[in-house]
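quick one, 184 residues, struct below
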Amino acid sequence: MQGFALGAAWLAGCASIPPSPAPVAQALADVAFSIAGRISARKGDTGVAGAFTWTHDAPRDTISLATPLGQTLAELSGDGSGVVAKLQGGRTESADTWRALTERAFGVTIPVDGLSAWVRGVPVVNTPFDAERDAFGRVALLRQGGWDVVYAYADDASQRPLRVTLTYPGADAVAVRVVVDQWR
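---
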């Protein structure tokens, strides 16, 4: 009986130790993916919103952005050597970075280079970050490169984020919201 009591006490002690969360997997930051969903980005009174499809195959990204009614707003593509946006009316914009391109094309910065990792709940590789986890060990908040990235999941069992909300504080405050409807 004494062995049973000792074993029960040991099990009870183990049950009170919270499980250690799994480390944020930086190695996943360059994994290829294809997603579809909705995005909105706002900086002050300027913004853009619509449906998107996105194919990420590092280092190349291809993004199609459409109005809620399906009219194409922009086709964006690029890699580490530069990015291009084909916009409504035949206008073309190009830049060295995604941030510069989206600022020029839409009037608001969309950090596509970071978002390619953040949309999957992982930090950008080789860049300092802080992360907070939810009760299920998933990333709930990621801070990196000046951005706060907040995650929402469809349910307790989901491992991929359903919604990702990015905010960049300060005088140039930016808010970006992404809802992933489909992973392909």
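The radius of gyration is 20 Å.
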